[in-house]
Amino acid sequence: MAKWDYDGPILEIDQLSISFFTRLREIPAVMDFSCVVQPGEAMGLVGESGCGKSTVALGVMQDLGVNGRIVGGSIKFKGRELNEMTDEELRDLRGSEIAMIYQEPMASLNPAMKIGRQLMEVPMIHEGIGRAEARARALEVVTDVKLPDPERMLDSYPHQLSGGQQQRIVIAMALMSKPSLLILDEPTTALDVTVEAAVVELVRDLGKKYGTSMLFISHNLGLVLETCDRICVMYSGEAVETGSIEDVFDEMRHPYTQALFRSIPLPGADKNARPLVAIPGNFPLPHERPQGCNFGPRCDYFQEGLCDAHEIAMRRIAGNDRHASRCLRIEEIDWDAPPVAAAQSAKPEPGKVILKIDDLKKYYEVAANALFGGGNKKVVKANETLTFEARESETLAIVGESGCGKSTFAKVLMGLETATGGTILIDGREIQDIPIEKRGTKTISDVQMVFQNPFDTLNPSMTVGRQIMRALEIFKIGRTEAERREKMLTLLDLVKLPRAFAGRMPRQLSGGQKQRVGIARAFAGGARIVVADEPVSALDVSVQAAVTDLLMEIQREEKTTLLFISHDLSIVRYLSDRVMVMYLGHVVEMGTTDQVFSPPYHPYTEALLSAVPIADTSVQKEHIVLEGDVPSAMDPPPGCPFQTRCRWKSKVPGGLCDREVPPMRKMEGGLEIKCHLDDEILAAMTPVIKIAAE
Questions:
Q1: Strands 213-218 and 42-46: what pairing?
Q2: pTM summary value
């Protein structure tokens, strides 16, 4: 099918309603949803999980499965109603006119087929062009998505590429037929923050080059600010606010949008002086939505008899560029009023040193030929000479991309692995060589972990109360069942869960509630050190604020040492006292949070800060995109671990970076940086993140 010219909007969705049908009932997933995407425009679709944003995308693709149906409204692509197209017309349209990029790149790639062949298929099927022309186009697109050695890429299988490279191939595949509309469903969630920055820049540049319109689905407001022209905020199946990025970010006119911004750690938030404001209550289930406004039960401005009287339609907001909101009280609300301050709390003073780590090394020996186990052995240096200490009541953030060794260090600390060299002291006891099965009850209860994914850490066939009581039994807390039950109920109080949840099964809990159970279990034995490994990255933005505040509150009460492993520098800036930056097994920078977030920076820290998307139009960032991917720990570069991607390398004379690992240098105020750069160059560095003057 030839592409047709059309000078109106690329995509017009008008009062769309989509439902899923089960044996019991009809479940409305999207109601009265409207949005328009003009040629060359990028529209961001934002909201928490379950709000219906991916359902809208699947509606546009006409791919709702056997249970999903469009029950009202219309979706027009270039003026033609998609609902009325035949299967054959839709097949011609998908991939050539409308392309979609999914969250998980491997879901779109055939593992048994070389990359080149997968890319060539697209224009050969859709446009009927020959192999030679298709190959030339594949080469051009792979070059466009900035992949090294394009010829080698075309001859590789998907498993031979890193996650960031796979996602670039999926983007290349989507662009092969130069589609008019590109739908991106959380395309960077599985990627590291520096790789995400490169992919986002790539998507933006290619959108301009090819004139492609985009529907960008994300829960990350900072990413939408950096990639889109317009935004549509969704809540519980409805669009609640839409407009240009500037209108919605700077003059928001819906209570949910406002609440969302107040629950994310923007520059200026402070865990003690200016804590985040979590959204009260929980997201409604589709069959339990309230009367009237869906956000009503959680809204600070809810008015009985008005907000719950009848369905609420979108209303245009005067004077702005297609700005609209689904709120009846827009004129009455003082949108510039500061939030009701959450309770401030005194900053806890760090106490004595609890954890001391000296020259810790963790190496793994792996077969060079992993498939058949033969051949030479290779050594993976997962942790290389880690030295630091952590005090009582202190939050130490450990930051870095995948493969930098943060989780390996956590495993050694927990006793799931033993160290290759160096020492770990807890209250003066050496534990680096004691595996968990040989550790005493005291050591096990002293060091506990809160995991990234709350879904994987709870036993699905055991009630919440029983899981916490099992931990109490193992830690020998409480002499009788009744005592343990009482302690379990006070732990539920501690993590702000109703006591009635003790009788619930994990499947009856939301992600945020499961994570609270995980925290209750970690604190069951009076833990001295809690390792929180990405504890909020699997949770929605509004739930993140509640869970981080909960961790802080428990830490203040229990005087716990918190090791917070994360790649999200916004949350790190908000809640940590000190920060340790890791790259390829090495600590490259360490200092207080203020020191690490202001110059001088280690070149890697500088790039990390530049890559963090910040949902604030007043923030200006220096733009640094790292070339290439993180090297493999199995084959690290010689000399400085960061030298293959460092933009400052040319400032160091004599090829020193290629030959020698830099020493850890103590800077002014106790900041430590592992770098060969001269003091004068480091001192002349400028801030990466600046807040524009009002």
A1: parallel
A2: 0.87
